[in-house]
C-alpha cells in the first residue's frame, strides 16, 4: 500500500530542495508543498509561525528511507514526520506511486 507522509519546514527553498531530492532519489513519487500557519506550544509559550507542509506520496518500501532523508538534515529541534497508509484510492494512482518509488 502507498503512504502519505508529512513534514514541515520554515523556508520555501528548503521545502523545494527536499521535495526535488526525494523525487530524484525515488523516495517519493510526488511531493506537494503548501503554506500553512502552525500554532504550537514551545518553551512554555504558545507560538504561531508560517511553515511549509510537505505531503510526500510514497510506497511502504520507500517510507523508511524517505523518513531518514527528511529528518537527516532537518533544522528543527523537534522535527515532525508522520505517515498514514492510503487504503482507499485509484488503483492506477497507487500503481504509479509504486512504480516511481522503485529503487
Q: How many extended strands?
A: 4
Overall geometry comes to: elongated
Largest sheet: 4 strands, antiparallel
Proportion of helical residues: 25-40%
The domain count comes to: 1
Task: Write structural notes for this entry.
The protein has 103 residues and is α+β, with helices and mostly antiparallel strands. The chain has a single domain (2-88), classed as 2-Layer Sandwich (Alpha-Beta Plaits), CATH 3.30.70.120. 32% of the residues lie in helices and 39% in strands. It is built from three helices and four strands; from the N terminus they run βαββαβα. The protein has a four-stranded antiparallel sheet with strand order 2-3-1-4. The protein is elongated, with a radius of gyration of 14 Å. It starts with a strand and ends with a helix. The mean pLDDT is 97.
Task: Summarize this structure briefly.
With 103 residues, this protein is an alpha+beta fold.
